[in-house]
Structure formats: structure tokens, C-alpha cells
Amino acid sequence: MDTSASEGARFQPASDQSLLITFGTEISLTAHQQVMKLLRLLQSEPVASVRNLHPAYCSLLVKFDGLRISHDEVEAILREYLARLEEVKLPEPRLVEIPVCYGGEYGPDLPDVCALHGISSAQAIELHSSATYLVYFLGFVPGFAYMGGLLEALVTPRLATPRRKVPAGSVGIAGNQTGVYPFATPGGWRVIGRTPVAMFRADREELSLLSIGDRVRFTPISAERFAALEKEWA
Amino acid sequence: MGVIQVQEPGLFTTVQDLGREGFGPQGVSASGAADAVSLRLGNRLVGNAEGAAGLEMTLLGGTFVFSDGAIVALTGADFGATVDGAQAALWTSMVVKPGQTLRLGPTRSGARCYLCVRGGIEVKPFLGSASTHILSGLGGHEGRSLRKGDMLKIGPANGAVPKRRLSANALKHVLPRKVLRVTPGSQSDWFPEAAQRMFYESRYRVAEESNRMGIRLEGGAVPEVAGGKMISEGVSLGAIQVPDGGQPIILFVEQQTTGGYPKIANVVSADFHCLGQLRPRDEIRFERVDWAAARSLLREQEKFLASEDLILG
């Protein structure tokens, strides 16, 4: 793999029916915008025989019907799209507020996070809820947003042993990322709180609360408020 | 239109069709039948469109009562099926009379047996597909595996279909392989020669905790890579990722859409259906093929599935 910080996109077959386009080898705003622009262009002008798109930090996986089109043909088409990235206008990012009840039974890893950084839980909550995060992409499971922008003072490695089940709504941190588990799934992020908001709902027009490119802020709420909101939104 | 009464659900039985493509940007993977070839053939045997929804049973089948009767076909692994006690063959359409009971037991061959019904299983589609996505509790029958007492609706179908069976020659084609053909993965060249040798020369055992999300393997540990810093990226169906510890995991139909482990290889599309028939403790190994070979394997498979003499009247 090319490890130089090369400009431009790199194409690579990922399977016999998919092609991976990578923008550089670092997580950056520039790469993120290129991913978003290419995704937007492919969504507004779909390519026949392309079946699915999996965006990530600085790459886009393009799945296609291998009976109808080849890697080379997909690459040629995508190169034309890339040449037009400049003209893609990204919408103003939305700001989404997510209420979180930190610590206690909802945030079992908050004490460890505080101990690792030598801070109080009030300080940790202040640090997590004072930053504005960027949704780099949705992945892993339906509606799971990978958010960047965690303050340096909270950067924490993931758990050595992932949990078998993390409750839905759990707010976690891992490295310099933060995220919310939409469903009860296995997970290795350190859980510091929980939101009563449904991150993904099949009966909502916007299935996922968050989309790629959104800005997110977390608002601390009490356990009482959590219970009230949970009841209200049930 | 009739109903199917679930008297016993079996170990893990879900409604599946060919899945939902196109929702990767929301983190939604395709899901769909683990052995799509068996589902497609089962649907053809009962005169459905190939992608109609059927029941996917895992390792131990269920017991189903057809109060209004139905035309059905069983495909995939042999779960020792009987209709009111009389042995029922695989790979053929059959008439189940009103009130008759179809009973399946433990597997005698692969991991999954499909029950296809003339008219298909009718459920409310989620994102255009009837497929159950277990992890998120969406799609299929109430987003979950079947339970005792569930009632499933059979969809409408026009006219009767003549009895159909799969040709003996075709049966040879659908036998699941234990030597899986693979193409290079996105990080193949991060793995040095010794790691590649370990991967391609080892026999791997399918671990107990394998499921529709991923098939976990136990065997020769692939040495850790020193290639570079992995940044989470989109992952393909059949991607073989190597986490710390070196025991490979094959991402399967209900896969995560992105992943952060390096991928040494990717199972070719033509062998996906074989993954769906792997049982815990089965032994497999991997054989490397090039892109052209993978493409022609897929073409051959589709040609075979489309051929006229596949299904006999």
C-alpha cells in the first residue's frame, strides 16, 4: 500500500465486486470533504450497476454488479466524477443536540476515564459536552456515527476486552472519537453516558438521527430528565 | 393466500430474501440469505421470482403447520424433513395439504436449510427487503428470529405450478466447497511472505460463535502486520480480516459496513453460498485466484443458475 501522503485518489479492488477509493492515508477534513462530495455526486447521479456505497474516514467503498461492469470500467467512470468534485456544493452542516445522562449506571466507564486522566467526573462531563463534533461517516451498524473532535484531554484507548453487549443509546469514546451505540451490540468503546434519543428508527422518514457531515453537541441531563424523555419518546 | 403456523421455530429461523443493497451510507448492510443459491433455486422450484422471501433455518429446523396447504420446496442442507411423518425430499417442489405438518430436525449435512413457499412469505418490507437484520431488530418477521406460535402469511400467487425438481447434474454444482477461493484483500501486501504462507497453508476450523455477521476461524495464527496504520474503511461481503491474535474472521451477510482490521483476502462471490453452509467445527482452507478467475467463476455460476435444463418439470 502506498504510505506516502500522496495527493489525489487511489483506486484498489477490494473484492471481485468492489473497488476502494482512498483519499490520502490520514484522517483529515480535506479527505472527509472529498469523500462527502464523491458520495453526494454518486447519490445524485447514480452509476448503473453500482449497488452500494460505504463511506468511511478517508475512503469510499463502491460495490458493483460484477456481471455487468468491471473494476476498470468503474474506475474510469469514477475518475470522471472525481474531476467534477470541485463543482459539488455541500449543504450547510446541521447542528444536532444529543441529551446525555453521564456516569452512574449509564456510564460505567466514566470513573476509569477520569482516573486515567486524573480529572473529576464533572470535568470529564464538561470536556465531553463542550466540544462540537463532526460526523465523519456512518458505519459498523445502522445509524452508528463515527464522530471526530474529542478534546485531547479525553483521548482514551478502547477497552482491552470488548463488552459482549453495550446497551442502545450508550455514548462511548475510543481514541479521539466519540459515538453513540444505536442498538444493543458488542462494543469496545468506553461508555461514559447514555442518551434517551433513538439514533435509528425504521418508522421515521430520516432513519438515522445523524448523517455524514453533521455537527453534534452533547447536552448533559439528569437521570430524572432521562427517564422523562425516554417515556415521552417511547 | 394462507398462513404458516410455527409450532416449533428450530434453533434460529429467520425470514430472508436476497437482501437490501444501497443503504451503506446509513451503516445498513445488505443482509439476505446466507446461501443465496439455495434460496434462489428453492423459489424457482415453487414458481416464485428468485428473490421472494423464504425461511432460513440454521442447524436445527422447525415444525410448521399449513392450515390452508401450500406448494413448498426445501433446499440447502438436509434437515431430515417429513410431512405428516412421511419423508420429504430436498430440491423438489411438493404439495402440502391443508392441515399437514412439515417437520424438520437437526442437520445431516450443511448449516442452513431453506423453506420456500409458492407466493413467498409476506412481511412488511424494510428498505425494500423482507430480510431480517437481527442485530438491529429490523426487517423480516418483527425484526427477530421465529418463535413458537408465530403466524406467517403466505403471499398471493397466480395459478398452479407443475411439479418441479432440480436436475442431478445441477445438484453437483450446488454442493458447498470446503476449499474457498479468495482474491487479495485491501491490505494483502501488509502481510509478509510468512503470514501469507500461514494463511494459505493452514486448515481453519469454524468457531462456535460464528453467525450471520461473521464467521470466526480457529487455526494457524497469521502473524501481526507491520505494514501501516489502519484507518476504518468500507468492507466487502466475504472480506477476511485479521484482528490482533491472528485468527481470521470472514465478514458475512449481516456484516458491519466498515471495519478497522487489515484484510488479507476476500472470498470470491461465486463461493459466498458455501459460507452459508459452514457449520461450527467444519474445516476449511483458502486458495488464491486472480481477478479474472474470480470474475469468470461468477459468470459461470450465473450462467448455470440461468440455464434452462437446471429445473426439470
Structure at a glance:
The complex is a heterodimer of chains A (234) and B (313). By secondary structure, chain A is an alpha+beta fold. Chain A has 2 domains: 9-87, Gyrase A, domain 2; 95-233, Cyclophilin-like (Cyclophilin).
SSE layout and pairing:
The complex is a heterodimer of chains A (234) and B (313).
Chain A: E1 9-15, E2 18-23, H1 29-44, E3 50-55, E4 59-64, H2 71-83, E5 95-102, H3 110-117, H4 121-130, E6 133-138, E7 145-148, E8 163-166, E9 170-174, E10 177-180, E11 185-187, E12 190-194, E13 215-220, H5 223-233
Parallel strand pairs in A: 5-13
Antiparallel strand pairs in A: 1-2, 2-4, 3-4, 5-12, 6-7, 6-13, 7-10, 8-11, 9-10, 9-12
Chain B: E1 3-8, E2 14-16, H1 36-45, E3 54-58, E4 63-66, E5 70-76, E6 82-83, E7 86-87, E8 93-96, E9 100-103, E10 112-117, E11 121-122, E12 151-154, E13 165-166, H2 168-174, E14 179-184, H3 193-201, E15 204-206, E16 214-218, E17 233-234, E18 239-241, E19 249-251, E20 258-259, E21 263-267, H4 272-275, E22 283-288, H5 291-306, E23 311-312
Parallel strand pairs in B: 14-22
Antiparallel strand pairs in B: 1-4, 1-12, 2-3, 3-10, 4-9, 5-8, 5-10, 6-7, 6-9, 11-12, 13-23, 14-21, 15-16, 15-22, 16-19, 17-20, 18-19, 18-21
Folded structure, characterized:
The complex is a heterodimer of chains A (about 230) and B (about 325). Chain A has about 230 residues and is α+β, with helices and mostly antiparallel strands. Chain A has two domains: about 10-85, Gyrase A, domain 2; about 95-235, Beta Barrel (Cyclophilin). Chain A is about 25% helix and about 30% strand. Chain A is built from five helices and 13 strands. Chain A has helices at about 30-45, 70-85, 110-115, 120-130, 225-234, and strands at about 10-15, 20-25, 50-55, 60-65, 95-100, 135-140, 145-150, 165, 170-175, 175-180, 185, 190-195, 215-220. In chain A, the strands form three sheets. Chain A has a seven-stranded mixed β-barrel. In chain A, a hairpin with a 2-residue loop joins strand 1 (about 10-15) and strand 2. The longest helix of chain A is centred in the N-terminal third of the chain and has 16 residues, at about 30-45. The radius of gyration of chain A is 19 Å and the shape is elongated. Chain A starts with 8 loop residues before the first strand and ends with a helix. In chain A, about 45% of the residues are buried. Residues about 1-5 of chain A have low confidence and may be disordered. Chain B is α+β, with helices and mostly antiparallel strands. Chain B has two domains: about 5-165, no CATH class; about 180-310, Cyclophilin-like (Cyclophilin). Helix content of chain B is about 15%, strand content about 30%. Chain B contains five helices and 23 strands. Chain B is globular and about 65 Å long. Classes of the chains: A alpha+beta (about 230), B alpha+beta (about 325).
